[in-house]
Design a protein that fits this description.
Elements (H helix, E strand, L loop, with lengths): L11 E2 L4 E2 L20 H41 L12 E6 L5 E4 L9 E8 L5 E3 L2
Antiparallel strand pairs: 1-2, 3-4, 3-5, 5-6
């Protein structure tokens, strides 16, 4: 049997003896729509910019939380190392003062009722952690 050669414009699969233009992933004639590759560079750049923005924002949030935590630690360290002769009650506000000899002490007397060097007023929460009020 002789193999008849089909013209180049005809898509014929000689192995299965069928026309298979509809199976091809590319255009097979002049009238077919143009196949263009999608531009993934713009998508990648947008995605990278979004990711960078998200990471930077999250970093700033974590840094702010860390600074607040360290400030809270410093206040608690200062208060727990201060001198006081009473047991502080949860939910009450106490006032931290500094003497002339740099010794700190905790008091129930408000700063407007005395002439001590005030370092601030603090609230003792239910977790036994001091929170700065003023």
């Amino acid at each position: 049997m002789t193999d008849k050669k089909k013209p180049d414009s005809v898509v014929f699969n000689s192995e299965i003896q069928k026309y298979d233009a509809f199976l091809k992933p590319y255009a097979t004639n002049v009238g077919a729509p143009v196949i263009t590759t999608s531009d993934t560079i713009a998508w990648k750049n947008r995605s990278i910019n979004k990711l960078n923005h998200r990471v930077q924002t999250r970093y700033l949030e974590i840094r702010t939380q860390y600074e607040q935590l360290m400030q809270e630690f410093e206040y608690n360290n200062l208060i727990y190392s201060a001198k006081f002769t009473f047991e502080p009650l949860i939910g009450e506000v106490y006032h931290l003062y500094k003497r002339d000899n740099n010794e700190t002490f905790l008091s129930i007397i408000a700063p407007d009722q005395c002439n001590f060097n005030s370092l601030g007023s603090f609230y003792l929460n239910t977790d036994q952690i001091w929170e700065k009020v003023v």
